[in-house]
Amino acid sequence: MINRRTFLSSATATAALAALGIPPEALAANRIKLGNPAPFSFDALIAQVRTAAQSPYKPQNKPPAEILDKIDYEAHGKIRFNTDSSLFANGPGQFPVTFFHLGRFFQAPVHMYALEGAGNNAKAREILYDESYFDMPADSPARKLPRGSGFAGFRFQENRNGDQARLDWRKNDWVAFLGASYFRAIGDLYQYGLSARGIAIDVAQAGKPEEFPNFTHFYFEAPADKSDTVVVYAVLDGPSIVGAYKFIMRRDDDVVMDVDCALFLRQDVGRLGIAPATSMMWYSEAVKGTGADWRPEVHDSDGLAIWNGNGEHIWRPLNNPARITASAFGDNNPRGFGLLQRDRNFDHYQDGVHYERRPSLWVEPLEGWGEGSVQLIEIPTDDEIHDNIVAMWVPKAKAAAGSSYRLRYRLHWMKDEPFPSPLARCVATRLGNGGQPGQARPQNVRKFMVEFKGAPLEKLAFGELPEAVLSSSRGSFSYVFTEAVPNGVAGHWRAQFDLTVDGDDPVDLRLYLRHKNQTLSETWLYQYQPFKTRGIY
Q: Residue span of the signal peptide, if any (predicted)?
């Protein structure tokens, strides 16, 4: 589906802006060109995609691949959107919109629309692609694209009324939608990191390739002046699914997004991933192969946190496995889950890209999701350039053709989780050779050091020791004890144990701390992979 380009005279463009209720200077000397108005409402958008689900999927038309392929990483990096052409550059609202250009890695054109008004009486005008919006070299292959080739995605720039000395809106953005149904936002540490997706279809599903539906249309409400909130609507389309989305996104110290979506299945889906998050885990302090890299750790997220329907807080450190693994954590109406970056110490990374500042992403259901499971997919990687982690909610009921879903949830992009447990939480997981110092190290024995820190551990009287409550899917434990971490920090304890296990099959471990039948810590879960760790120490 190709965006059509229409050249409008200055007078016509000015009239279009007036109809939108947007002052002409907002689009910077009328650089943004708008198409003819058409009625719009979210209800009508849902009805539209419901009807589309009754018909076979029709792939979008794309500009010539031989041209797009020439817009490689280097060429794409030389194409910059001119912020003078931003949507809402001078209001209304505080956050201008800029657009991404198509290229080798982003070949699917996306339709963009500016909305007049809101609710059931809104009007939509297409934002028509023009290469003049972009600064690019004279010999850029992008100049050979046909008229109306379209945009690849968009981003909201920082507050144009903000502190320019600290954060220049022309150079900084806070949310971006680019590629398939991927999007991401910064947290309160001003860093991008992991991504969210509109949907995940058949991730690591045996016998089926993963499907990547696209956001094909975006609609931007004209924001209220001085508001910290923006509203965007979207259409999702793919061979197995079609959907309508409403994003209400708030920029404060962190970023919070309310998502309202209606989904309709064209085909059966083996693994339907709701509110998926995608991240990167190369290695952490837990397991690192000798000489893998000079940096101590490299990851965007270090664990999966779950607050389940029973109120239990769970922490599952992430792995870079030897083979693709899928873990399911069954639940009924979960309270939330997320991929988090808990380790915020620069010295643990030693990298100028600042992995210690990467945001955490927490998914908060806003209504009951029923029975299903939080599923974690871990894929092997040998570099930091690949996202190899997916976390998502998978409903228990079969995702059959003709099924529909109406879901509401909230995404929190921040440095910490929004609903932290009052219990001590896990702050580190470390593995090493088993056995005791000064004695021969036994074969097939792994030592685990799991650290917890928090207020319940601070309240232990002098001489009191928390108990490590351990269980595993197989193997046996030995040399189990707890001790205060000898760093002088109150409430910082670690549990140590050795695990003896034969064979290469994964081992699921479970641990928490208690004292006199009182639970002191969240629950630590871990999937130990003997094949992955054998022989690397």
A: 1-28
Report the distance separating Cα 2 and Cα 20, nearest Å.
24
Pairing of strands 122-128, 492-500: unpaired
**Could you tell me what percent of the chain has a pLDDT over 70?**
92
* Whether the bond into 422 is cis, omega within 30 of 0: no
The whole-number average pLDDT for the span 180-207 is: 96
CB 85 within 8 A of CB 133: yes
Would you place residue 225 in the very low, low, confident or very high pLDDT band (cuts 50, 70, 90)? confident
Exposure letters 79-110 (e unless 16+ CB within 10 A, then b):
bebbbebbbbbebbbbbbbbbbbbbbebbbbb
| 437-441: average pLDDT | 85
Residue 29: predicted pLDDT: 38
CA 308 to chain centre: 20
**Domain encompassing residue 376:** 272-398
- When the pLDDT of each residue in the chain is averaged and rounded to a whole number, the result is 91
Q: For residue 477, what is the domain's CATH number? A: 2.60.40.10
For residue 273, the model assigns a pLDDT of 98
Is residue 326 domain-shared with residue 233, that is, in the same domain? no
Token representation of residue 265 = 């299945």
Is residue 361 over pLDDT 60?
Answer: yes
Contact 33, 130 (CB under 8 A): yes
pLDDT in tens, 246-260: 999 999 999 999 999
Same-domain check for residues 350 and 436? no
The whole-number pLDDT of residue 247 equals 98
Mean pLDDT within 293-303:
95
Which residues does residue 232 pair with via DSSP β-bridges, in sequence order? 220, 247
**Residue of 416, 412, 377 whose CA lies nearest to 394:** 377
Q: CB-based contacts of 310: which residues, under 8 Å, 6+ apart?
A: none
pLDDT computed for residue 514 by the predictor: 98
Taking the CB of residue 122, how many other CB atoms lie within 10 A of it? 21
Judged against a pLDDT cut of 60, whether residue 12 lies above it is answered with no
In a domain, 196, yes or no: no
Q: Is residue 404 domain-resident?
A: no
Classify residue 69: in a domain, yes or no.
yes
CA angle at 241 for the pair 238 and 245, rounded to the nearest 5°: 95
Instruction: Give the Å distances, CA to CA, from 340 to 23, 176, 324, 412, 523.
Output: 42, 19, 21, 11, 15
Tokens representing 223?
């924001």
> Is 60 exceeded by the pLDDT of residue 467?
yes
Q: What is the DSSP string of 373-413?
A: EEEEEE---SSTTS--EEEEEEESS-B-TT-EEEEEEEEEE
Phi (first) and psi of residue 77, to 5 degrees:
-65, -20
Which pTM value belongs to this model? Answer: 0.92
- Concatenated DSSP letters for 483-508? EE-TTS-TTEEEEEEEEE--SSS-EE
The verdict on 255 and 284 lying in the same domain is no
Residue 501 has a CB neighbour count (10 Å cut-off) of 18
